[in-house]
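Module 6 notes. Inverse folding takes a fixed backbone as the condition and produces residue identities as the prediction. Think of it as a translation problem where the source language is geometry and the target language is the twenty amino acids. Below is one complete input and output pair. Work through it position by position during the lab.
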């Protein structure tokens, strides 16, 4: 898409970037809100339409068909790979200034609707974040905004999407700045907050203003608060188990020599088989969450524990084998089951204790699992508070979220969303060394005013060149081939300068350094800078196919670094 030029009526907004971002942020939030509402209604329609066939013995093929169609749509129709959506958004922010394709505004909505609506164990949140972020990115391109502004609008899209789908504006803001953007700045917060409010209002206007998961009033005492530490430990364990399950299934499915849609169908059929005995694992599972936090889940401890493990397996099969969707909804279900199982175990061990209603521990389990999986405790806290109205449990909620996120960080230093990006070196947060250096290239740092000398040149001739040059380094080339053979520094000829008898007896090739470290044009600048520091170098030659093309100096690199840092940290 070619950038559009501001029409004359946008002159006022061009004069004030903040006003511009607030105005466009509201547009992005509104569009993201509509996308979330459309996905919600589409899922409800598909789930109700397929419910008439779920009682049949062959119903296990429904998730397989949905996952296969989802994979075919992504792979053949819109030409996108399977995935959760959120890592792709973070990657675009880290490496490409928030650039996302136009088709990403709807591709994950369609694919996730097919996967989840047919019974796959996944959530609609990540796909709608992908859609909202792509909306923000393409609106930024329409208005010809710069990279910094486009990244902010990507955040606006994510905030509007999360806020709309959960009716939770604060959670949308916190998720965006804590997970998507990775930075808290006043310039980002204002348009993101406006987008979150806009998305929420769209949801309330079209779906009603209601808390997603209502519950009874909980009376919490000190014993319950102390006991909640155990919830944090078990939710952290469940988060680690789910993380490893997702990665293991992805590796296993990758070894199967079959088209992606076949693999997705295999995973979906296995989920369907589990769902024949345990329907709680199918779909997003919000109905089960509602039942658990109200304290109306009648099944016993053994069933709850088995259902928790089955939901982890079903989610791993759905997403690991090629289905499309997010992990928020499965985390809420698994967290509720963990909290419920923990409460019932406590009641069996200490039946005389006056424990709070089990719905409270289910609520704490939700916060603990979200915080552990994302390693974003603030997102876990505010999301659960807003979607449940659980302000009375804020103290244990904070404690469970913080402990769970900390334990998961010690075991898995990178969160589920960031692990693959970190392993590949693709996670470059704004303002960090890696991000600043990634936006610089050797080509723009290259110094080409160097004078090349021959290795057979006499010292006398070389001294004449030095008299008319301001450089300290001189690349040495082979007379016959023109290949780079070494470097000569002024310090290397200092011992010969005061003995003119040697001017015609010493050749450049005899006093040059043939073992100098060189740089390739596509080499990572952060590695080059580390090499300069470790070897105490101030300049290095850039060599292509054994030919000298220029020098790269630490002074020039740091000067460009400073200028780029100013660009990235200013609006």
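Target side of the pair, the amino acids:
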């Amino acid at each position: 898409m070619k950038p559009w030029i501001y029409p004359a009526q946008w002159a006022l907004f061009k004069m004030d970037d903040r006003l511009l971002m607030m105005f466009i942020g509201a547009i992005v939030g509104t569009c993201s809100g509509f996308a979330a509402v459309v996905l919600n209604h589409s899922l409800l329609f598909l789930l109700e339409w397929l419910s008439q066939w779920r009682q049949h013995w062959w119903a296990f093929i429904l998730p397989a068909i949905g996952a296969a169609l989802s994979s075919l749509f992504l792979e053949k129709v819109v030409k996108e790979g399977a995935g959760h959506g959120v890592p792709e958004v973070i990657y675009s922010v880290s490496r490409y200034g928030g650039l996302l394709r136009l088709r990403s505004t709807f591709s994950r909505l369609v694919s996730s609707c097919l996967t989840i609506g047919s019974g796959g164990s996944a959530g609609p949140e990540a796909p709608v974040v992908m859609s909202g972020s792509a909306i923000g990115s393409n609106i930024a391109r329409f208005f010809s905004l710069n990279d910094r502004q486009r990244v902010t609008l990507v955040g606006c899209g994510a905030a509007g999407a999360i806020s709309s789908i959960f009716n939770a504006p604060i959670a949308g803001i916190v998720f965006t700045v804590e997970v998507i953007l990775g930075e808290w700045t006043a310039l980002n917060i204002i348009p993101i907050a406006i987008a979150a409010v806009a998305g929420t209002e769209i949801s309330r206007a079209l779906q009603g203003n209601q808390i997603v998961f209502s519950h009874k009033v909980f009376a919490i005492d000190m014993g319950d608060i102390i006991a909640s530490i155990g919830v944090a430990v078990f939710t952290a364990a469940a988060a680690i188990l789910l993380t490893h399950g997702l990665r293991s299934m992805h590796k296993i499915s990758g070894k199967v020599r079959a088209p992606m849609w076949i693999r997705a169908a295999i995973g979906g059929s296995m989920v369907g088989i589990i769902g024949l005995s345990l329907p709680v694992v199918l779909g997003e599972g919000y109905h089960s969450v509602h039942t658990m936090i109200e304290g109306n889940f009648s099944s016993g401890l053994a069933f709850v524990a088995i259902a928790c493990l089955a939901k982890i397996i079903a989610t791993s099969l759905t997403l690991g084998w090629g289905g499309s969707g997010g992990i928020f909804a499965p985390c809420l279900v698994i967290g509720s089951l963990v909290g419920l199982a923990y409460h019932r175990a406590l009641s069996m061990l200490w039946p005389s204790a006056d424990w709070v209603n089990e719905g409270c521990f289910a609520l704490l389990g939700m916060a603990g699992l979200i915080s552990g999986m994302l390693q974003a405790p603030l997102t876990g806290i505010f999301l659960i508070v807003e979607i449940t109205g659980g302000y009375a449990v804020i103290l244990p909620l904070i404690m469970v979220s913080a402990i769970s996120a900390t334990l998961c960080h010690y075991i898995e230093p990178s969160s589920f969303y960031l692990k693959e990006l970190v392993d590949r070196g693709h996670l470059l947060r704004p303002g960090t060394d890696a991000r600043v250096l990634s936006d610089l290239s050797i080509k723009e740092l290259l110094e080409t005013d160097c004078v090349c000398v021959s290795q057979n040149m006499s010292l006398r001739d070389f001294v004449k060149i030095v008299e008319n040059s301001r450089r300290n380094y001189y690349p040495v080339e082979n007379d016959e081939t023109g290949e780079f053979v070494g470097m000569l520094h002024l310090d290397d000829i200092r011992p010969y300068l005061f003995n003119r008898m040697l001017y015609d007896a010493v050749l450049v090739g005899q006093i040059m350094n043939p073992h100098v470290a060189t740089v390739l044009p596509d080499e990572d600048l952060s590695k080059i800078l580390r090499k300069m520091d470790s070897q105490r170098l101030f300049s290095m030659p850039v060599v292509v196919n054994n030919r000298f093309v220029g020098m790269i100096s630490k002074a020039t690199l740091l000067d460009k670094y400073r200028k780029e840092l100013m660009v990235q940290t200013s609006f």
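Reference fact for the lab report: Residues 8-211 form a domain with the Clc chloride channel fold (CATH 1.10.3080.10).
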